[in-house]
Write a structure and sequence with these properties.
mainly alpha; 74% helix
Length: 194
């Protein structure tokens, strides 16, 4: 019984830490890398790279922390209306859930050891997830009047391009060199949850 309480406490602490880290990373990116006309949109959203890695290390808890971190860091702290923020922030959830599901389903080695692993990484953690996230996010901004439909493509392009660059530069390094240490801890989650 005591072991279960300690385990739940550990995962809750990790979850809360990830929400805080994602919120701060989101806010940092929105403040320092914004050239978009849209509230909360960064043209170099470095937070997404860490969010992807956190989801791959900590499963569904890491994915939910990405969503909540976006709500706080890129939404609430950027004065986005709450009704929009809740649906708009799903973009970050899609951007981390897609790699999490794909890596689990296709049994991709998180350390990206083979060419096959790298291909799955590129398809599901760099391009597909960021296309879907950027499409969702920019469309939600347009239909809610935050950006005009004329600004839709430019906002999408900056969102997608910045996410791809951040993901390619940060994620492989973290997966290859930090994953071995994370996998040795009790906190590491194989697939979706423990």
């Amino acid at each position: 019984m005591k072991r279960n309480i300690e385990s739940v406490s550990m995962y809750l602490n990790i979850f809360l830490f990830l929400i805080l880290a994602n919120s701060l990373l989101s806010r940092f990116a929105v403040i320092n890398f914004t050239s978009s006309p849209a509230t909360g949109v960064s043209n170099m959203y470095v937070a997404v790279a860490f969010m992807i890695v956190f989801a791959l290390w900590y499963g569904i808890g890491g994915a939910l922390a990405a969503y909540l971190g976006c709500i706080v860091g890129a939404g609430i702290l950027a004065d986005m209306p709450t009704s929009l923020n809740i649906i708009w922030s799903l973009a970050d959830l899609w951007q981390v859930l897609i790699p999490l599901i794909a890596f689990s389903y296709f049994k991709v080695n998180l350390r990206l050891r083979t060419r096959r692993d790298v291909v799955y990484f590129l398809v599901f953690a760099v391009f597909l997830n960021n296309i879907i996230g950027a499409s969702w996010g920019t469309y939600m901004l347009a239909i809610n009047g935050i950006i005009t439909y004329e600004e839709l493509f430019l906002t999408f392009e900056r969102w997608f391009t910045g996410n791809v660059i951040a993901t390619i530069l940060i994620v492989p390094f973290l997966l290859r060199y930090i994953t071995p240490y994370i996998q040795q801890t009790e906190s590491y989650v194989e697939n979706y949850w423990k």
